[in-house]
Amino acid sequence: MKVWRLLSIGTAVAASLGLGATQSFAQSSVTLFGQVDQWIGAKELPGAERAWGVSGGGMQTSYWGLKGQEDLGSNLKAIFSIEGFFSANNGQYGAYKGDAFFSRNSYVGLESIYGTVTAGRHTTPYFVSTVLFNPFVDSYNFSPVVLHTFLGLQGQGLVGDSGWNNSIQYQTPDFGGLNATAIYAFGNAAGQTGQNKWGGTVGYTHGPFAAMAAYQQVKFNFTPNDLGTVAPGFSSQQAAQLGAAYDFGLAKLYAQYQYMNDAIAPVGAHSNGGQVGVSVPLGAGKALASYAYTKMVGSIDVTRNTWSVGYDYSLSKRTDVYAAYLNDRATGLSSGNTFGVGIRTYF
What we know:
Blueprint (H helix, E strand, L loop, with lengths): L1 E5 L2 H8 L11 E16 L7 E6 L6 E11 L2 E12 L4 E2 L11 E8 L2 E9 L1 H8 L11 H7 L12 E9 L6 E9 L9 E11 L2 E10 L8 H4 L3 E14 L4 E13 L4 E14 L2 E14 L3 E13 L4 E12 L5 E11 L1
Antiparallel strand pairs: 1-2, 2-3, 2-4, 2-19, 4-5, 5-6, 5-7, 7-8, 8-9, 9-10, 10-11, 11-12, 12-13, 13-14, 14-15, 15-16, 16-17, 17-18, 18-19
């Protein structure tokens, strides 16, 4: 991580005029940060053919960003963050083809003792809850619960994306380990005030224990009135999740429960499922294992079972190598198997 301490324009002007000794100006800072993750192996989704290759984001999607703050005085700071995903294997920006340049986060706001308010594009609180309570974090290749939640099959899965445009977010201060986040996203189209997304989380951390409850409701996927292109008669989706983790030292245990309800006329659908996982320190790394189950009933009747195992070895504080295998099964589809080895480094 590299940090530059920058003088504000006002400070530079004051210094050039010889006024530095009589006037004070707020300092600001800008941080460059991110990670690069590459893996080689084979990916095979249920019902699809196996594809071999070198790909980005085995354990986590590669990204880079700039964030900064300016002290405005009276315990008030102006903050910003612009962050974008990319694939190092081909230099393509975005987490997928067609993704925005700064799709991870892109916001500006104010931070005070009363909390933080930001406006722009935000990674959703629901996504944060999902990745915090499973051992494979936000891997779109080896985390069973991430696949079930954000890469659903045959009608399963979350709609609305893991990042929301045109959104306002509020985060509370930490109250003895208790915190909360709320988010609201506008449809940003004339006459579409009813098209919105909103949600939030409540979390608690105390020593080795952590837990979080998350909820969100969406009435459009990417643009107002586009849920009908996902499924005829689809008008909204509600999703709720509970997650918990406890670090025993010899092992860290994870558990999640998830419920989704799709409002689809004339017959809707809903799903129940969950995930259990474990991370065990082993040598200079960690052995990882996770299992997720989702059952959807109603207008869609699909069951999905996914499990994965892996080992993540730390070469240093910023660089690790890993190997992982995932088995994925869904109703009516052939089994999928994904496996490979990779390297990840932070900056």
